[in-house]
Write a structure and sequence with these properties.
312 residues; Rossmann fold; twelve-stranded mixed beta sheet; 10 helices; 12 strands; 30% helix
C-alpha cells in the first residue's frame, strides 16, 4: 500500500524511481479509506535526505500512511531553506489539536550537549508530551531515543571515549516480542554517536524492556511495556553511503575521525560499502506500524484523548 505525501515533495520523485509505492494528495483524496496518520518531527540538518530515508521504510509496508512533516518552531534550521520548510513542514502550534496514529522523532547532531542546553529542548519536551496524548505510539531514533529515555524515565546518557561509528552486529534479547517478528538472531545497525545511554539504569526501570543490544553498541532497541514508546539508538534508516559521506566530510574538514567500523570492504574507503541493514530496517518499521499502531489505535483518532492504557 502507498505512503501519502505532498505532491511536490522531492522524496516523491526519488521513491517513485525506486519503485516505492507513493500516492499524491490529489489521488488520495479520491479514495474512501482512512490512512494511518503519522507525524515525523525531523530534527536532522539534512532534512530532504532524512525524509526520503524514513518514507522509503514507511512506504514499504502493506498499510496506507498519510505523513505530516514537523519542524521546530523555536529554532530555525541552518541547513534547509526556509521556503522549503514553510511549504512542506508544520510546527507543533499548527497540529497541537490534531491526533495521529503514530509519531516519529528523529535524531539530531546535538548529543554532546546537555539536554537543557539544546536550544529547542523546551519545545521538544512539549512535543513528547503532546505525542503521548495525541498519538498511540512514538518511535524515538538515536539522539531522540536518548532524549526520550531521559525525559520520561530519568535515564542519563554518558560520553564515550571515542565516537561509536560504523555498522554493528546486534543481538536479540527477546525473540517473542512483536516488534522483532521476522528478525534474525543477529542483525546489523548503523551507529553514529558520541554518547551512550545508561544500560543498567534502563534495565532497572520496570516500565521498560530491552529488545536488542551488543557489547559494542550497548542497548540498540528498547520499548515501554505498554508499547507507547519505542527507542532505537541506531540509524536503521540510513542509506548505503550515509556513513561514508559523514566520514569524508570530516576528513575534508580535518576533524579527528576514524573509519566507520565493519563498513568499507577490507576497511578500504575507496570501496563501495554493502547495504546490510535495510531488510531489518523494513521489518522494524513494518512491525511498529502494524503491531504498535495499526492493530491498536482506534478508528476515530479523537478517542485517543480518553482511552484507557493498553498493554501489548
Amino acid at each position: 500500500m502507498p505512503v501519502k505525501i505532498p505532491d511536490a515533495l522531492p522524496a516523491t520523485k526519488v521513491l517513485t524511481e525506486e519503485n516505492i509505492f507513493v500516492m499524491t494528495e490529489k489521488r488520495s483524496a479520491a479514495q474512501d479509506i482512512r490512512a494511518l496518520k503519522i507525524a515525523i518531527l525531523n530534527l536532522m540538518p539534512t532534512k530532504e535526505k532524512t525524509e526520503t530515508q524514513l518514507l522509503r521504510l514507511i512506504g514499504n509496508t502493506p498499510l496506507q500512511v498519510e505523513i505530516t512533516l514537523l519542524r521546530t518552531g523555536t529554532y530555525e534550521s541552518q541547513n534547509t531553506d526556509e521556503g522549503y520548510l514553510k511549504l512542506f513542514y508544520r510546527t507543533l502550534a499548527d497540529v497541537q489539536n490534531d491526533y495521529f496514529d503514530g509519531v516519529v522523532i528523529t535524531g539530531a547532531p546535538v548529543e554532546q550537549m546537555d539536554f537543557s542546553d539544546v536550544l529547542y529542548w523546551d519545545e521538544l519536551k512539549q512535543v513528547m508530551d503532546w505525542a503521548d496524548s495525541h498519538a498511540f505510539s512514538t518511535l524515538y531514533i538515536c539522539w531522540a531515543a536518548q532524549a526520550g529515555l531521559y525525559y520520561h524515565y530519568g535515564i542519563q546518557k554518558y560520553a564515550l571515549s571515542k565516537k561509536l561509528f560504523g555498522v554493528f552486529d546486534t543481538l536479540l534479547t527477546d525473540r517473542r516480542d512483536k516488534l522483532l517478528r521476522g528478525f534474525d538472531d543477529v542483525f546489523t545497525v548503523p551507529m553514529s554517536r558520541h554518547t551512550q545511554v545508561d544500560e543498567e539504569a534502563l534495565r532497572s526501570c520496570p516500565e521498560l524492556v530491552v529488545l536488542a543490544r551488543s557489547d559494542e553498541t550497548g542497548v540498540a532497541l528498547a520499548r515501554s511495556i505498554d508499547g507507547r514508546r519505542v527507542f532505537a539508538t541506531g540509524h536503521s534508516e540510513y542509506d548505503r553511503d550515509t556513513l561514508a559521506r559523514e566520514y569524508f566530510r570530516d576528513v575534508q574538514k580535518g576533524l579527528p575521525i576514524e573509519k566507520p567500523k565493519h563498513y568499507f570492504p577490507g576497511d578500504d574507503p575507496e570501496k563501495l560499502p554493502p547495504l546490510r541493514w535495510h531488510s531489518h530496517a523494513n521489518l522494524l518499521f513494518a512491525n511498529w506500524l502494524n503491531y504498535f499502531v495499526y492493530q491498536e489505535t482506534p478508528f476515530e483518532l479523537k478517542r485517543l484523548s480518553g482511552r484507557e492504557e493498553n498493554r501489548i
